[in-house]
């Protein structure tokens, strides 16, 4: 089972940027599709972005399209989420997830999850 650890969250003013990182254990990272999800207080977990195993395909929620960029470095067992032009509504706990096949948009299709990292955007 792949193990994931997120980092890079913090407090930022509206319009600012953050870069989240997720490091995976094991030797099979390159075989996983990777996703980022977020959950705000009182809300359901929400899809943010995903990237396929090779990095050739990416997917984004409409709410973050044009502002966020997902990328991966399989040689380093890392996946990233670059977040620009942040808005207060982006405030949430962000989770890294790994899966093999299925829907990129559905949390139930992912097998492993990180512990989450808090992102807070002030106005």
Could you write a compact summary of the structure shown?
The chain is built from no helices and 11 strands. The protein is mainly β and 123 residues long. The relative contact order is 0.32.
Cα(first) to Cα(last) distance is 40 Å
Percent range for helical residues?
under 10%
Number of helices: 0
Low-pLDDT windows of residues? none
Account of the protein in words:
- The protein is mainly β and 123 residues long.
- 0% of the residues lie in helices and 50% in strands.
- It has strands at residues 4-7, 10-13, 18-24, 33-39, 46-51, 58-60, 68-73, 78-83, 92-99, 110-113, 117-122.
- Strand 4 (33-39) and strand 5 form a beta hairpin.
- The radius of gyration is 13 Å and the shape is globular.
Any key phrases for this structure?
0% helix; single chain; mainly beta
Fold blueprint:
Elements: E1 4-7, E2 10-13, E3 18-24, E4 33-39, E5 46-51, E6 58-60, E7 68-73, E8 78-83, E9 92-99, E10 110-113, E11 117-122
Parallel strand pairs: 2-11
Antiparallel strand pairs: 1-3, 3-8, 4-5, 4-9, 5-6, 7-8, 9-10, 9-11
């Amino acid at each position: 089972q792949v193990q994931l650890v997120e980092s890079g969250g913090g407090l930022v003013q509206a319009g600012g940027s953050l870069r989240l990182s997720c490091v995976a254990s094991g030797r099979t990272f390159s075989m996983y599709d990777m996703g980022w999800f977020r959950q705000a207080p009182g809300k359901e977990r929400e899809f943010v972005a995903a990237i396929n195993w090779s990095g050739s395909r990416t997917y984004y929620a409409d709410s973050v399209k044009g502002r966020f960029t997902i990328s991966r470095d399989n040689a380093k067992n890392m996946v990233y989420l670059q977040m620009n032009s942040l808005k207060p509504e982006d405030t949430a706990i962000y989770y890294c997830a790994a899966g093999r096949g299925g829907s990129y948009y559905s949390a139930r299709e992912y097998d492993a999850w990180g512990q989450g990292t808090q992102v807070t955007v002030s106005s």
